[in-house]
Design brief:
Layout lengths: L1 E8 L3 H12 L4 E5 L26 H5 L1 H6 L5 E3 L4 H14 L2 H16 L1 H9 L8 E2 L3 E5 L2 H6 L1 H9 L5 E4 H7 L9 E5 L4 E2 L2 H14 L3 E4 L3 E7 L2 E7 L3 E9 L5 H5 L9 E10 L10 E3 L4 E6 L2 E10 L7 H14 L6 E11 L6 E5 L2 E8 L5 H16 L18
Parallel strand pairs: 1-2, 1-12, 2-9, 3-16, 5-14, 12-19
Antiparallel strand pairs: 4-8, 5-7, 6-7, 10-11, 11-12, 13-16, 13-17, 14-15, 15-16, 18-19
Helix pairs in contact: 1-10, 1-13, 6-13
Length: about 425
């Protein structure tokens, strides 16, 4: 039976960032992934370190739009009707998390995490080839109408309150920065401190190369069947045909995390939230900066291999609904004034999402040597490095650098 100091379950961006941070802290680390590391949800994201996403999706205005979610299968946020009965317990928790007091608490913890997101990434990637994968030029959130811009004023005030910088752009400013866009944008919000990656999978691979070169071990294609418990203490992992002893276990398995906790008597209200992306040739709609379209709920990011159109939220999905990818292309055709986009590829992925739209980060109640790090919804890439720093604090016996009590799994007890 093999042994290690730290066993990490999950090779997505959260698990890989945790692995590298802990390796650099002097721990012997082994990472286990059921498939190829980074080929899950981490592969197809929009690439942004989204510093302005301080408002959780669980909030009153989104809750009030629930009838529209059912009625419009091609809207930016959709709930599949056949899945409604199974999702009802999750939706009830979503409703409870949408109460004003809880929204204020959730906004506070998200804002504090996001304020540290970019510095944490520079610290994690500074000695790695990954640093060359980031582009440090900010991004723009666009408002197509005066009504949308006015609705964002509350969020603008919160960003200012939490020290997250932005510059206000007029329609003329946007036209000058993005001449390929059709005229008519009302206004925008430029985030000069934000960064993005032109290839999310290449970023993960470079973290993995650094991790392995510094002595880390990656085991791919092995599914963890259970966390082993002996005399009430977590002692390691049981895989399909092997076991791994470990002093500390980090559970960063995304959507698979709930199934691994269930045999330990822990029920987690985790659901899959599907998103899509479409890749097109960059010369069809040339951009030199990522754009977030507030009303339409999608992002256009210039990537190393083309332009990525990503976004949408779909709850209760089983088979992919490729019409939701089609709508991304149609948005781009309208916004860039193109008669038709030629696609390179399309993709879908399932984000691990908890009903209050906060991740779980912290020790598992009753098993302090099991550290939980999952449920990051849209913010997995954004929060990976700060999550890794917090996990590293916990695993090395230090007080977490931020108050993460609001992120404990016990909040769902």
């Amino acid at each position: 039976m093999k042994a290690t100091d730290v066993a990490i379950i999950g090779g997505g961006i959260i698990g890989m960032a945790c692995a590298l941070a802990l390796q650099r802290a002097g721990r012997r680390v082994t990472l286990v992934d059921a498939g190829e590391a980074g080929r899950g949800c981490s592969y197809g994201n929009a690439g942004l370190i989204a510093v302005d996403h301080i408002l959780p999706l669980a909030r009153p205005d989104v809750l009030m739009s629930a009838p529209g979610m059912l009625a419009n299968p091609l809207g930016p946020l959709h709930l599949r009707l056949p899945a409604l009965p199974a999702l009802l317990p999750w939706l009830l928790r979503f409703a409870l998390a949408s109460r004003p007091g809880q929204v204020r608490k959730s906004t506070d913890i998200l804002a504090r995490l996001l304020r540290e997101a970019v510095p944490a990434w520079w610290n994690l990637a500074k000695d790695a080839a990954a640093s060359g994968v980031f582009r440090n030029q900010g991004y723009i959130t666009l408002f197509e109408t005066a009504k949308s811009a006015q609705a964002a004023e509350k969020e603008n005030r919160l960003l200012q309150q939490y020290g997250i910088r932005f510059d206000t752009l007029s329609g003329l400013d946007i036209r000058a920065i993005c001449p390929s866009l059709k005229p008519g944008m009302h206004s925008g919000r430029f985030h000069p401190d934000a960064i993005y990656t032109a290839d999310p999978f290449a970023l993960l691979q470079s973290l993995q190369r650094s991790f392995i070169s510094e002595g880390g071990v990656v085991i791919e294609g092995r599914q963890v069947r259970q966390i082993q418990i002996e005399s009430g203490i977590a002692v390691g992992l049981q895989m399909q045909d092997a076991a791994l002893r470990a002093e500390t276990i980090v559970l960063a398995a995304g959507n698979a995390s709930a199934a691994l906790l269930r045999p330990l008597g822990v029920a987690v209200p985790l659901t899959s939230e599907r998103g899509y992306h479409v890749m097109v040739e960059s010369d069809q709609a040339p951009l030199n900066i990522p754009l977030l379209f507030a009303e339409r709920g999608f992002v256009a990011t210039p990537m190393a291999t083309g332009l990525r159109l990503a976004g949408t939220v779909e709850l209760g999905a089983k088979a992919p609904n490729w019409q939701r990818a089609d709508i991304l292309s149609r948005h781009a055709e309208q916004l860039f004034g193109l008669p038709g986009l030629v696609e390179q590829s399309r993709w879908f992925g399932d984000r691990p999402t908890l009903p209050d739209y906060l991740p779980v980060i912290g020790p598992m109640p009753g098993h302090g040597n099991v550290i939980l790090a999952f449920g990051h919804q849209h913010l997995g890439l954004t929060l990976a490095a700060i999550t890794a720093a917090l996990v590293c604090d916990l695993a090395t016996g230090q007080a977490p650098r931020l108050d993460i009590s609001a992120l404990s799994l016990s909040r769902f007890s």
